[in-house]
Design brief:
Layout lengths: L1 H13 L18 E5 L9 E6 L10 E2 L4 E6 L4 E6 L5 E3 L12 E7 L5 E4 L2 E2 L5 E13 L5 E12 L6 E13 L24 E4 L2 E4 L7 E7 L4 E4 L5 E11 L8 E10 L1 H16 L15 E4 L7
Antiparallel strand pairs: 1-2, 2-3, 2-6, 4-5, 4-7, 5-6, 7-8, 7-9, 8-19, 10-11, 11-17, 12-15, 12-16, 12-18, 13-14
């Protein structure tokens, strides 16, 4: 509440407001794809997701890109085509295909359905340290209006490898949720029945009656919680103690049954570290009135012209 009042007074004193600035951009040469993928020294399959960028402030999610041709290559002469799964825009290697080896370099070659070609710079897989312990701390948060919320802060103690200059810790959460798909609220037209069960519920409306036709295949679901921002660090040779890597809210959905946290420690090249550090800074600055300019987040993905030139 105090922050809101101070914010309003600040605007009145300046007699001004914040307006959206539309800056000109080179639409034709803009690299308008998002490539989300990682390869590790654990067995595959490895996943690559393709989507299109959206404007800042848009309420639309990223639009997935299907029917692309993706090839994973290594400096050892290995190559493997990455095929699209049943999920649009999600591609995977074979479980028995290329496996990451420390010391080798890997890169992606991508051809979109419209013929445009993109390629990532070769990135070397570096040795990584280990997580010594993973623990949580329960906290209660009290809002200005007196309402309370609860959650667990997730911390790690870890060691980094002497050759590991840059490190990222990735947080993933998954929890069980019980649903009631037979009460799906989408009513069919001109039907007095207030619900239309989802087919996976095992229930169907026959002659205006709700009838069970078989077992429910979607009543027990697993939902994912992904990190709100990346956790990265430039190492100085010391151990990592009490580093917060995630937060688990306690609410009706997350703890209906059980919750599992997975934290992965990954070594990064300098280029990859600078990318994730920029993403983190933007996430941190987004909650401030004086947030830094977004600017351009440097990537290791480049457009390749038909001449072979990288632009």
């Amino acid at each position: 509440m105090q922050r809101s009042i101070a914010f309003v007074l600040f605007l009145l004193a300046l007699d001004s407001c914040i307006e959206r600035a539309e800056l000109p951009s080179d639409q034709e040469n803009r690299v308008d794809i998002v490539v989300d993928g990682v390869i590790t020294n654990d067995p595959g399959p490895y996943t690559v997701k393709l989507s299109r960028t959206i404007q800042v402030g848009s309420t639309l999610g990223g639009l997935t890109i299907s029917n692309a041709k993706i090839t994973l290559r290594s400096d050892a002469g290995e190559s493997e085509q990455v095929f699209e799964t049943r999920l649009p825009g999600t591609y995977q290697t074979s479980a028995s295909g290329i496996r990451g080896v420390i010391g080798r370099s890997y890169w992606l070659e991508i051809q979109l359905p419209d013929g445009r070609k993109f390629e990532s710079l070769p990135d070397q897989m570096l040795p990584v340290g280990r997580i010594d312990s993973l623990y949580h701390k329960f906290e209660t948060f009290v809002a200005d209006n007196g309402s309370k919320s609860y959650g667990f802060r997730i911390f790690v103690n870890a060691e980094t490898n002497p050759e590991e200059t840059y490190t990222r810790w990735r947080f993933d959460g998954v929890y069980a949720v019980t649903t009631i798909p037979k009460l799906h609220p989408d009513a069919p037209p001109n039907n007095p029945c207030p619900t239309r069960p989802l087919p996976c519920s095992g229930w169907q409306i026959l002659n205006g009656q709700l009838v069970s036709l078989g077992p429910c295949t979607c009543c027990e679901c697993w939902a994912n919680q992904f990190e709100s921002k990346p956790t990265v660090r430039e190492n100085n040779g010391s151990k990592v103690i009490g580093l917060q890597v995630g937060f688990v809210p306690v609410n009706y959905y997350t703890f209906q049954d059980k919750y599992r946290v997975t934290v992965t420690q990954m070594s990064l090249s300098k280029k990859a570290f600078e990318y994730w550090k920029t993403v983190k800074d933007q996430k941190d600055g987004a909650v401030s009135l004086f947030q830094p300019a977004f600017g351009k987040t440097e990537s290791n993905i480049f457009k390749r012209e038909n001449t072979g030139k990288i632009v």
